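Usage

Read records sequentially. Each one opens with the input sequence:
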Amino acid sequence: MGLIQSKTDETISSTTNGTSTNSRSIQRRKTLSWRHHGKFTLASPNHQVRRDILTFHQFSSLSEDIAVEILSYISEAPFEVQDDTVKSPLTHVLPMVNRQFYEMCKLDTLWLASLQRLTFRNPDLCKDAFKRLLKAGRTNPKWSVFYTEAIDKDDFMLANKVHNMDYFDKEEIYQLVSNIYDAVSCNKDHTTSNQDEHDPSLSSTSIDSARKMYFMVLKDVAYTTLPVFHMRCPTLQKDMYINITLFEPRYRMLIREAMEGRKSFEFHGRLLNKPRPRFLFAHTRILENGCSAFLVEILRCRMLEGGRARIMINPIKKVKLEGVFPRPSVNNGLHDARIKRFGG
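and closes with the structure output:
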């Protein structure tokens, strides 16, 4: 696989007063170098080389395709495993080994493999991201605001698969992710056509690499945006059940969106099925970026006349609001906020 040799340089400086040595300082510096033959070796301070380290010196003789396939099993990307750190083997470890690995870590093969694993672990989270990517590209599914009757049949089938990807097995999800990448990365000129008038932010999006697509999907996986219920409540704590009556227009909209698609019996005060709807409870005096809030789960909901609702909530996690912004095209005061899914 190559030779990684660690050299130890010792600099010994001494000052002699008569026949005695007043001081001695030893400075040791380890450096890594790469050579394309031999074994993994480590030079000890007395320059005796160790030969008992496991090696894979045949790696350098493998073709690039096989080498990349091997690296794909250890090249996890940021947040691929639910963690609160952005450091990962694909971005902070493998590129530092040598120039060959550095170039390999730019390849679509490794990033696409990471995206496939991420989607398999979080299909419900990645689904919304794929829908947005398809809507921004040349695929306009039927549930898209850009849908037209002239939609390509293959693209519609792909969008329909995304909508039902929760029921796919591992191989089907991997194949679906590859097909999505092919759909949104090809015909980039067509990607931006007929979109500017609808959404300029989406029309400027072009997927020219699997790495870029990974981080665009990661925005939905690492972060989520939820509506905010703002009411000062200094005593609010985790796992403290609270009953609230929602009557303001903005919160009637909040509960209507949260309960959309639920079973009819769940609107009459019975315990909701899992997964339960969630929103953010901002309990501080001022609603602003960086303030703390609780991620709450709706346990029960009883709809009242005029769209009002009486709900029971459970604060499940304290979070920090990364961004607070008013709901666009709505003048009733409802705000949304972005929070981290992992790490809080």
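Summary fields computed downstream for this record:
- Confidence is low (pLDDT under 50) at residues 1-50, 136-151, 187-204.
- The two ends are 41 Å apart (CA to CA).
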